[in-house]
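Thread: Newbie trying to understand structure tokens

Hi all, I'm a second-year student working on a class project, and my supervisor (Dr. K.) asked me to get a predicted structure for one chain before our next meeting. I've only ever worked with sequences, so writing a 3D structure as a token string is new to me. If someone could post the tokens and maybe explain what I'm looking at, I'd be very grateful. Here's the chain:
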Amino acid sequence: MTSKLLQKPIKLALIQLATGLDKPTNLSHARSKILEASHAGASLIVLPECFNSPYGTAHFPTYAETLLPSPPSHTQSPTYHALSSLAAETHTYLIGGSIPEFSPHTKKYYNTCLTFGPTGALLATHRKLHLFDIDIPGKITFRESAVLSPGNKVSVVDLPGLGKVGVAICYDIRFPELAMVAARKGCFLLVYPGAFNLTTGRLHWELLARARAVDNQCYVALCSPARDMQAEYHAWGHSLVVDPNAEVRVEAGTGEDVVYAELSGERIEEVRRGIPLSGQRRFDVYPDVSEGKVRFEEEGEGEEK
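---
Reply by user tm_fold:
Sure, no problem. This is what the structure looks like when written as tokens:
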């Protein structure tokens, strides 16, 4: 029986990549890991947040690339063309973590994820909606908004032949409304490239992944950079895939790794038959957030997918 959400079983790969200060080296290293994942049979491959640069407000302007109007030139965005070529070379769907973006139109910087299809075509762009501004006394203070601006849309991406995935970035996972909208629009998987730190990762990384999965009864994947204690920012690592029953199917350690999970539409259907939440919600008592005023397109930049 063919699932309504995931049309055929797929192998998902999460690349927990180690990155450094040199962008060409980062891109070359990402290429080798993408090829490794493809050779292992993955048809959907995910990179981590800020995979082509160090993560940090001091680095965003230095490493930022121009993506619009699309397609950009090789000079404007070497990362765009590297990802597009790799998706075509491997015949895979490639969710390109995130990169710092500069928009000449808005004169602003963004944290942006590019998704490419097996022909190398750009399928979608997601700019991080919720910026990482926190202050935990004695632990960590960080303000992405000191440099970055937020995106303005929900990203539901159609992967022809497979189904739909919801794409968001890191701190976006803390906002359940975003996941609810994507899941109720038919996504079989919610993907979050993310660079949680040693404080928030220990507290909430796995918890949030499992929460989004159990709320929406779909797969959830979190893809982190590898942890580098010599870097300015210490990523949590522990990239993981959670199934629709909120069970952790695979989890990386802290170092560089590629982890794999088999995703099945039948598993989604099985979980939803056992606990049939979709038919039990009381939208006569409370609103359905997916049917409200939801924006699926960026305003003011018509070239963006």
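A couple of things are worth pointing out once you decode it. The longest strand covers residues 108-116. The CA atoms of residues 83 and 96 lie 7 Å apart. Feel free to ask follow-ups in this thread.
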